[in-house]
Design a protein that fits this description.
The complex is a heterodimer. In chain A, about 35% of the residues lie in helices and about 20% in strands. By secondary structure, chain A is α/β, with parallel strands linked by helices. Chain A has six domains: about 10-115, 3-Layer(aba) Sandwich (Rossmann fold); about 125-330, D-amino Acid Aminotransferase, Chain A, domain 1, CATH 3.30.470.20; about 355-520, Carbamoyl-phosphate synthetase, large subunit oligomerisation domain (Carbamoyl Phosphate Synthetase, Chain A, domain 4); about 675-685 and about 750-930 and about 1055-1090, D-amino Acid Aminotransferase, Chain A, domain 1, CATH 3.30.470.20; about 685-745, Dna Ligase, domain 1, CATH 3.30.1490; about 935-1035, Methylglyoxal synthase-like domain (Rossmann fold, 3-Layer(aba) Sandwich), CATH 3.40.50. In chain A, strands 27, 28, 29, 30, 31, 32, 33, 34 and 35 form a nine-stranded mixed sheet that branches. A seven-stranded antiparallel sheet of chain A has the order 14-13-10-11-12-15-16, sandwiched between helices. A six-stranded mixed sheet of chain A has the order 17-18-21-20-19-22, with helices on both faces. In chain A, a hairpin with a 6-residue loop joins strand 13 (about 280-285) and strand 14. Helices cover about 25% and strands about 30% of the residues of chain B. Chain B has helices at about 35-40, 95-100, 115-125, 140-145, 155, 195-205, 215-220, 240-255, 265-270, 360-370, and strands at about 1-5, 10-20, 25-30, 50-55, 55-60, 75-80, 80-85, 105-110, 125-130, 165, 185-190, 205-210, 225-230, 260, 275-290, 295-310, 320-325, 335-340, 345. The termini of chain B are far apart. The model of chain B has no long low-confidence stretch (mean pLDDT about 95). The chains are: A alpha/beta, B alpha/beta. At the A-B interface, helix 9, helix 16 and helix 17 of A face helix 3, strand 15 and strand 16 of B.
Chain lengths: ~1100, ~375
């Protein structure tokens, strides 16, 4: 069936901000979709609230809207743009839910708008638990004994019928939010309560736990003509019970017999036929390890994280093909661009093993519960490709950047047998290493299989790796035979050097003397059967090299690895733009990255893609092969920048700021010297190693002080201390692991935080605009609401430009530079300089319309700003627009993480609000961040620390005037009542009823405003904040944020009333008004500074 | 022990020995299936071939003898990247290494199977020699390689005696029920049939009598079978014994419905005046898409062939013939229908095993034709 003729203009819905369970994979899918639809000659309109994505670039669609993903907004845009169709299956669960809502309320029919791809009936059958089970029953596919419950009583009855242990899964949620396994009734009731809360339809599935079965996934694709294929099978290392997003996954499935494989493949295709899928669909199965029984766990009738993985694992572009299917094409009418000889009807055959390992945030959230279950906790993932099981696993491990090089974990190795043994039964992020340690301690594969349910094949393979590690460690010399085995197992030189306690360069020299050298193989979708032209490679140590370098001038761009808190999709945005610019300039652009979710690892983005770990060993191999004229380390976040020295030492030219420049910015002492030279003030500070030194420094600086390790990323381990006990606690915690670099103790200035990104060519700089952080310094810049343009005086603006210029010149910055300033008592201080791209680059590029990364790339290749047509200095001063970026968190996914914001970054994603007025921009941003504005009459709990009480008073007055019912804990309520704001008294948790917790649980309270100094997980404030998260009650932990929310409430804005604006029109308005220096209208107050800190 | 695969053009691949130790000469082909090594290796269609597995990890769940496609594997040699010799569960009868040893099949591992696969793709299927310890000079083995001829394999892969396989529904306790006129009775000529073809026919409710390759048509007619299945098998169809062609010729002239798979499909084509040719590197894998001409649907099929019916010969056929299936990638002939559907032949393997069973309904269709 050829392309449908009745489609001219399509609205593509993106997935919104990055949250756990919905990450960069949808940028990849959406970007592919937009490109494909445009290639097909359609008018494309895009809606996504996430500014950090490639897909929201102005040129990705004919009109791009960065607006809240709310049903009313979608409707408005569909009508404004007169779209005749909508494509939602590439926008994750968010997109799918919106499409279902549009279909359910009749809007699509009324306006004759077609939903492309899988139809609502099919989506409903796939998503609604009851409908799904009925469908499975109809076609004879086995499900797990289960039932639907709408309340706790029903849960109880069902669980008794089914028998414990049972598993609770809420309907319509992402990454299994709110689910879990319960061994008994008490446990079940707790989980079920949260699950009912999390579900959009207030239903949960109570099902028999089948822990111990294998978990197998099939990624399928089907066209409207009824042709379906299985693109890829995947096997979870962990048996059923761990969310697939939290499982180590191998592709293709490795331990199934043909009968098992085909049984499940056939079942998967039967299911997609029953749902009449038109596009991609993921089907998950549980397979009994031996008796051939299986059960369908769930389906995702859309593109998913697994489809991104399957695409990258096989080279089959699922999103592209799914987009074409949505337009009516049949699979055999779609060319396979990899081979140009086959079509999308060919099931991929691979001749390598793919390993995916999740990247969890537990290194940042040390207090979070690490236990893994049905609720996904990982923020990102790495993928590795190897010619052997071992090499794909070893590559994936080192891609995690956790400083693991093999299967050896020092902490585990140090435990006594008695301490260690119980860990085998614990299912958490360390499981791979626990199992390896058990094998090292002599546990048999059979014994471990019994206790963990992990398949014997995996255990035996791990045993082989452990044995080789021990052999390398103990062998008197590295023989050629041994070295050959090590490289076949994917051991990096660094790992061998660590195992043998021998310098790396010596190990490298030995390897080379044996003639063992990295060569590269191609990912071609067909296991070598057809000649392929994909420039998509992975390494091995074979003789043949399929990645013969071309004779074109080449530049290698280092990517940013897995998505984690503090290093998100923004850096992939930068890498991709850099690559595109390099290609435009005629260079061969080569990218190295290991994140399967991203656009940068789409094989047709760069001229060559190396899907490899971002370590010195792996990068070195690629550079040796390619001999590029330069390497760009500026765009891949900390992952890339920390390789700059190694790359430089290898003798490859760095394009952009040199390794020395980077070191000058990161090394405290060298940086202080530069600041002194530039005559730029910074908060006073010291570098210390011990707790005593830290206390002495703090006393000299006068509390509060800010403590952090030097060389950090995303504010890792940063804390504000207001007394000696805080300092000692923090130093005790941080010194648990050996610190290579000193700890910094700085005077903490509570001022207005300002941020700039600048492009520097060595002579001049170009600053797109100055951003202001709504929250006072102390909340990490990544977690604060960021406002462009900053409302500051012309004098301050000039100071910032001057300081930025001086710093760029002194550090010899070529390319990008990000600086955070504090305006305190009208004086500008520098707090941090990052000589690289930053989190705010996509945001500031989009709102100002300046192609920042492209300009920076040209500068790195020698061009000068004065010749580029955008001028120098500050590009936009105070244009008549507002762009507000708000953070988005994933707290509901992470138990035991404090939701109170502080200097350590906690957000996983961001959204943007754009408008001509400040209040509408703020409202859009807060709305897009999924903040649920309470309706007048609802209860609001106020509980703030003493220092904040006077600041709270005017806010409380305004909330009361708006008709909210105020509740306060003892001190807060007394203060407010005393000052004439009627406030009900509620007790703290632990005190007699009625407590604040009960107000939240009963649904009386719809907002919590809470500031605190404590983050102790036993404190009442902490517990209250967690209770709120679990009940979907928004929590505000900064009064600055609170002010913004109060203003939004006062404006009476609603989702229906907001005016959508395209990003291109917005940037145009910036351009037209960029020279203005003052606001067009009288400004409302941005934050609390005017009446508090400034006057202090 | 080191082992060497020497190709007829002098190219050498070095690996390590596993399975049996046996120097030999064979034709080298590659297979891209990712699962189902037990079925692949025991498929008699691959008899006499040195098989390169493109997927790099073999033997992951050991060998379950119940899953084999023939009593004993008949491939000449096996080339892999790695094989698994770790712990196996209770369902496995033995490891892949032991299975090969038992059946006297040599293997080499630690081969860059991707390079070898690509080499065969570029240079076509060719002869190869396996030897050990030291790599001989090519000049010393060239003559042996060039003089080697693929032996006649069907006598080895075919059943020696007529055998009867009752339908699954048959009541095995009641001897009288074993032959039941109410059930379709199919005669299967075995050139090297996979076990799963017989099993599937039984599953569809048919009794199956399996005949040796050199059976006469008279014998089959005497047994009063209602339909004929010409099985898959190894080698070049043109080198089959005359008796094979004679029997098929007689069968095609009868009014019995006939279904043919793989080699059977090629033999029917030759008998009915079409031509076959050797392919450059063949189709061996579990992911081959074929188009069903009548419906414009496509199916993912399992293929295992090095010879193919030439497209041009469709025009010179002696009898009415229709192209029913073609390969989506290279448009080669994948299915033919003669005499308005009385004879339906398939180049691919509708029984899957290993691989997708998306075309399994063709067996049901065949039985339906018989019952009509």
């Amino acid at each position: 069936m050829p392309k449908r003729k009745d489609i001219k203009k399509v609205l593509v819905i993106g997935s919104g901000p990055i949250i756990i369970g919905q990450a960069a994979e949808f940028d990849y899918a959406g970007t592919q979709a937009c490109r494909t639809l445009k290639e097909e000659g359609l008018d494309v309109v895009l809606l996504n609230s996430n500014p950090a994505t490639i897909m929201t670039d102005a040129d990705m669609a004919h009109n791009v809207y960065i607006e809240p993903l709310q049903i009313d907004v979608v409707k408005r845009i569909l009508l404004i743009e007169k779209c005749d169709s909508i494509l939602a299956s590439l926008g994750g669960q968010t997109g799918l839910n919106l499409a279902m809502e549009l279909a359910e309320d009749g809007f699509l029919k009324e306006n004759d708008i077609k939903l492309l791809g899988t139809q609502p009936e099919g989506i409903f059958k796939g998503e609604d638990r009851e409908a799904f089970r009925d469908t499975m029953l109809e076609i004879g596919e086995p499900c797990i004994p289960s039932g639907i419950a709408h309340n706790l009583e029903e849960c109880k009855i069902l669980a008794q019928e089914i028998g414990y242990p049972v598993i609770i899964r809420p309907a319509y949620t992402l990454g299994g939010t709110g689910g879990g396994i319960a061994a008994d009734e008490e446990n079940m009731l707790v989980i079920a309560a949260a699950g009912l809360e999390a579900s959009r339809t207030h239903q949960v599935l109570v099902e028999k736990s089948i822990a111990g079965w294998k978990e197998i996934e099939f990624e399928t694709i089907r066209d409207s003509g009824g042709n379906g294929i299985a693109v890829c099978s995947m096997e979870n290392f962990d048996p059923v019970g761990v969310h697939t997003g939290d499982s180590i996954v191998f592709a293709p499935a490795l331990t199934l017999t043909d009968a098992e494989t085909e049984m499940l493949r056939t079942a998967a295709l039967n299911i997609v036929h029953a749902l009449d899928i038109q596009g991609g669909c993921n089907v998950q199965f549980a397979l009994h390890p031996s008796n051939g029984d299986y059960a369908v766990i769930e389906v995702n009738p859309r593109l998913s994280r697994s489809s991104a993985l399957a695409s990258k694992a096989t080279g089959y572009p699922i999103a592209k093909v799914a987009s074409r299917i949505a337009l009516g094409y049949q699979l055999d009418e779609i060319e396979n661009v990899v081979t140009e000889m086959t079509t999308a009807a060919s099931e991929p055959a691979v001749d390598y093993v793919v390993c995916k390992i999740p990247k969890w945030p537990f290194d940042k959230f040390v207090k979070a519960a690490r236990k893994l279950g049905t609720q996904m906790k990982a923020t990102g993932e790495v993928m590795a490709i190897g010619s052997t099981f071992e090499s794909s696993l070893m590559k994936a491990i080192r891609s995690l950047e956790l400083n693991y090089w093999g299967l050896y974990n020092e902490t585990l190795a140090a435990l006594t047998d008695a301490e260690f043994d119980p860990l085998i039964d614990v299912v958490d992020d360390r499981r791979l290493f626990v199992v390896a340690e058990a094998l090292r301690r002599g546990y048999s594969e059979e014994k471990l299989n019994e206790r963990t349910g992990i398949t014997l094949y995996f255990l035996s393979k791990l045993k082989g790796i452990v044995a080789l590690e021990m052999e390398i460690k103990s062998s008197p010399i590295m023989t050629e035979e041994l070295f050959r085995q090590a490289v076949n197992f994917g051991f990096a030189d660094t790992w061998i050097s660590k195992l043998r306690n021998q310098p790396e360069d010596e190990v490298r020299a030995i390897r080379k003397a044996f003639g063992l050298k990295q060569t590269y193989k191609m990912v071609d979708t067909c296991a070598g059967e057809f000649e392929a032209i994909t420039p998509y490679f992975y390494s091995g140590y074979d003789e043949e090299n399929e990645a013969e370098p071309t004779d074109r001038p080449k530049v290698v761009v280092l990517g940013s690895g897995p998505i984690r808190i503090g290093q998100g999709i923004e850096f992939d945005y930068c890498s991709v733009h850099c690559v595109q610019e390099l290609k435009r300039l005629g260079y061969e652009a080569i990218i190295i990255n290991n994140n399967p979710e991203t656009v940068s690892t789409d094989f047709d983005i760069s001229d060559r893609l190396y899907f490899e770990p971002l370590t010195a060993d792996d990068v070195f191999g690629i550079l040796e092969n390619e001999q590029p004229l330069g390497v760009i380390c500026q765009f891949g976040g900390q992952t890339a920048i920390k390789l700059i020295k190694a790359v430089s030492d290898m003798g490859y030219p760095i394009l952009g700021t040199s390794a020395n420049g980077v070191d000058e910015a990161e090394d405290r002492e060298r940086f202080d010297a530069i600041l002194e030279l530039c005559e730029i003030p910074r908060p006073r500070g010291y570098t210390v190693y011990t707790a005593d030194e830290a206390v002495a420094a703090a006393e000299d600086l006068i509390y509060p002080v800010l403590l952090r390790p030097s060389y950090v990323l995303g504010g890792q381990g940063m804390v504000i201390c207001s007394n000696e006990a805080d300092v000692r606690e923090y130093m005790g915690y941080i010194n648990r692991s050996v610190q290579e670099h000193p700890i910094l103790v700085d005077k903490y200035l509570m001022g207005l935080e300002l941020e700039v990104d600048a492009i520097s060519d060595g002579d001049h700089i170009l600053i797109p605009g100055i951003m202001e952080h709504l929250e006072r310094a102390g909340v990490h810049s990544g977690d604060s609401i960021s406002i462009f343009p900053a409302y500051i005086s012309e004098r301050t603006r000039d100071t910032i430009v001057t300081y930025t210029e001086r710093l760029a010149r002194s550090l010899n910055v070529i390319g990008l530079l990000n600086i955070q300033y504090i305006l305190y008592n009208d004086e500008v201080y520098v707090i941090e300089v990052n000589p690289r791209s930053s989190r705010t680059i996509p945001y500031i590029s989009k709102v100002t319309g300046l192609p920042v990364v492209n300009l920076a790339t040209r500068v790195m290749l020698g061009e000068k700003l004065i010749n580029m047509g955008y001028g120098t200095g500050l590009y936009a001063r105070y244009p008549s627009v507002y762009a507000v970026k708000a953070p988005v968190f994933s707290f509901e996914k992470l138990q035991d993480v404090d939701t109170a914001l502080g200097p350590e970054m906690k957000s996983t994603g961001e959204v943007l609000g754009l408008s001509n007025t400040y209040s509408e921009a703020m409202y859009k941003a807060i709305l897009a961040s999924n903040f649920r504005f309470p309706k007048p009459g609802a209860g609001i709990i106020l509980t703030v620390r003493d220092a904040d009480k006077s600041d709270l008073l005017p806010l409380a007055e305004r909330l009361f005037a708006l008709g909210y019912k105020l509740y306060g804990t003892g001190g807060t309520a007394n203060y407010l009542n005393r000052h004439g704001v009627p406030t009900n008294i509620t007790r703290k948790i632990g005190q007699p009823a009625p407590t604040a917790k009960e107000l939240v649980q009963s649904g009386q309270a719809k907002l919590l405003i809470n500031t605190t100094d404590q983050s102790d997980i036993t404190s009442s404030g902490f517990i209250l904040r967690r209770v709120c998260i679990e009940h979907g009650v928004p929590t505000i932990t900064s009064l600055d944020t609170c002010l913004a929310v109060v203003e939004c409430l006062e404006q009476g804005l609603t989702p229906e009333s907001i005016e959508p604006v395209t990003i291109a029109d917005f940037a145009k308005r910036v351009d037209q008004t960029k020279h203005r220096t003052l606001p067009e209208h009288e400004m409302t107050q941005h934050n609390m500074l005017n009446n508090s800190t400034k006057s202090k | 022990m080191d082992g060497f695969l020497i190709l007829e053009d002098g190219k050498v691949f070095q690996g390590k020995a596993f399975g049996a130790i046996k120097s030999c000469i064979f034709e080298v082909v590659f297979n891209t299936a990712m699962a189902g090594y037990t079925e692949s290796i025991s498929d008699p269609s691959l008899a006499g071939l040195g098989v390169v597995m493109a997927f790099p990890s073999l033997g992951n769940h050991g060998v379950r003898l119940i899953e084999t496609e023939s009593d004993q594997p008949t491939i000449a040699a096996l080339f892999v990247r790695t094989y698994y010799d770790g712990a196996l569960d209770e369902k496995a009868d033995l490891s892949i290494d032991d299975w090969l040893k038992q059946n006297n099949i040599p293997g080499l591992w630690d081969i860059d199977t991707r390079e070898l696969t690509r080499y065969l793709r570029e240079n076509g299927t060719m002869r190869g020699m396996l030897c050990y310890d030291k790599c001989p000079h090519f000049s010393d083995v060239r003559k042996a390689l060039y003089e080697w001829e693929m032996p006649s394999l069907i006598p080895l892969t075919s059943t020696q005696n007529k055998q009867f396989f009752p339908a699954c529904q048959a009541d095995f306790n009641n001897k009288d029920n074993l032959v039941d006129a109410s059930r379709p009775h199919i005669g299967l000529i075995d050139y090297g049939s996979k076990r799963s073809i017989i099993n599937l026919l039984n599953d569809c409710g048919a009794d199956v009598t399996v005949y040796p390759y050199n059976v006469s048509a008279e014998e089959i007619f005497n047994d009063q079978v209602q339909g004929i299945l010409l099985s898959n098998g190894p080698g070049d169809p043109k080198f089959c014994d005359e008796v094979v062609f004679n029997t098929i010729r007689a069968l095609t002239k009868s009014d019995l419905p006939i279904m043919a798979i793989g080699l059977g499909h090629l033999l029917v084509a030759l008998v009915l005046g079409l031509d076959t040719e050797k392919m450059y590197f063949g189709h061996r894998g579990t992911n081959h898409p074929v188009r069903e001409i009548a419906t414009d649907q496509f199916f993912v099929t399992v293929q295992n062939h090095g010879y193919v019916v030439t497209t041009v010969s469709l025009e010179t056929a002696d009898v009415p013939v229709e192209l029913t299936y073609c390969h989506i990638d290279d448009e080669s002939v994948e299915g033919l229908s003669y005499f308005d559907g009385r004879i339906e032949t398939y180049q691919f393997h509708p029984e899957g095993s290993p691989g997708p069973k998306d075309t399994m309904h063709l067996f049901e269709r065949f039985i339906e034709r018989i019952v009509e």
